[in-house]
Structure formats: structure tokens, C-alpha cells
């Protein structure tokens, strides 16, 4: 079956992720509308990546029975980000989405401070842009995967591609797989809609692929992100337990969520069926 990809490619700073952060930051009280009070903290989500525009999302806490990805947006805020020398005020381009379009503002090794006022309290956070991974290489540029499905067996042995790098193993890493093909074919019988795959790989200097990583064939950009500990902790907190919902890991003062930064090294990978 042929799948034509209709979604455009985005940088990770605009992906969101996601992803699981919305679930991490859920509250356990059921209500039909957001409650604005002293006990309700705003949820902040910002990912700084050199060479991309700055995007920070701010929204109310999302409740467990909501099916929406994010809570209701918090609008009309004045968000400032400073690099210690220059301070910019982000522009609210869509409700709850605050951006700064200058792609040169975020730079490696600089520390960025976010702050804004909400319900009379100062919401703030800091992050330092980490170094870019070095020595990123792969054992092969071609990854063959078997077709998987109920009642389907294969005698072909899966041979993983090994990714390695020379950056310190003490750093925290996230591997992201982005299919850049306009036409792709499923590698399993589920045929779920395509979405970028991400793997938190922790503090290592080598990673072997697995067949379940690639749900579709095509040309991939494999990105090795050097992430900060605050982001690693936020993702790790979503371990599927109820505690992670009521006590999420956050680096936002007087708020919830994540304000972090990262850098990536990228390699191509051609994924085909065996």
C-alpha cells in the first residue's frame, strides 16, 4: 500500500513533542473550562535550537479526560527572553504561541532566561544551549527491515545499523528519525498514520537500530540531539505512572513545563523492506 505524506517537515523546536509533555503536565481535577486561580500554574513549553526561530507555548493545565493535545492557550502575555546582553519580547503569532523570528538569536553555549508575569507572579526559567554532538557516524546508509504482521513470519535476520559518536558519553542524547520522502510504504500491517519517531537514549556513545523504529520505508534524517538534563528528566518522568502526572519534572519557576535547548548532528538513512 502506498502512503503519500502530506505533513511538512518541521524542526524539533516546533514539534511538540509532542508529544508526551502534554500528558505529563495533566492535572487530576475534572472540569469543563480552565480555572484561573492562585493554585493553577501555567504550562510553558519552549525548545531552543540554534538556527531556528524561537517558539514558546503557554497554556492552562490539561486535564486527564481531555482528548486535546494541549490545554487552553494563555493569551496576552509579555514573554521576554534574554541572553544576558540582549532582551527580546516574543510576539504572539497565534493564541498561546509566542515567537521570535530572528534565527541568529539562539547561539551555542549561551544561557537564555525566560520571564513573564502571570496572575501577579513572575514565571521564569533558564537554559544553556549545549554543544553540538561530534563524530556522528553510521555503520551503513541502508537499513533493511522485515515486514511485520499477524501470521507473518520471516527467516531473514534483521541487521541493525550502528550509530556512534565521539562526544562525551556523560551527555544526554535523544535520537529523532524524520522521514523526508513524499511517498512511503508501511513496514507492518497496522498502517497507522506516519509520525516522526523519537528515542531517548540517555548517556551513551553508541546506538543500534531496531525494526520497530521504522514504521515506513523512505529516506530518513537521523538526528542525534545533545539535550540538557532538564529535558531528559522531563521525558523520563513520563514513565506511565500516575505520579508523573501529579508531580511532573519541571524547570519552570512558579509554573509547569519545560524551557530547554538542544543541538543536533544529522545523518541520512535509506530504509527499505527486506
Please give a structural write-up:
It is a single chain. This protein has 274 residues and is mostly beta strands. It has two domains: 10-130 and 243-262, Immunoglobulin-like; 137-226 and 267-273. The protein contains three helices and 20 strands. The strands form five sheets. Strands 3, 4, 8, 9, 13, 15, 17, 19 and 20 form a nine-stranded mixed sheet that branches. The protein has a four-stranded antiparallel sheet with strand order 7-6-10-11, with no helix packed on it. A three-stranded antiparallel sheet has the order 12-14-18, with no helix packed on it. A hairpin with a 5-residue loop joins strand 3 (43-48) and strand 4 (54-59).
Task: List descriptors.
2 domains; elongated; 38% strand; 274 residues; Immunoglobulin-like; 4-stranded antiparallel β-sheet; mainly beta
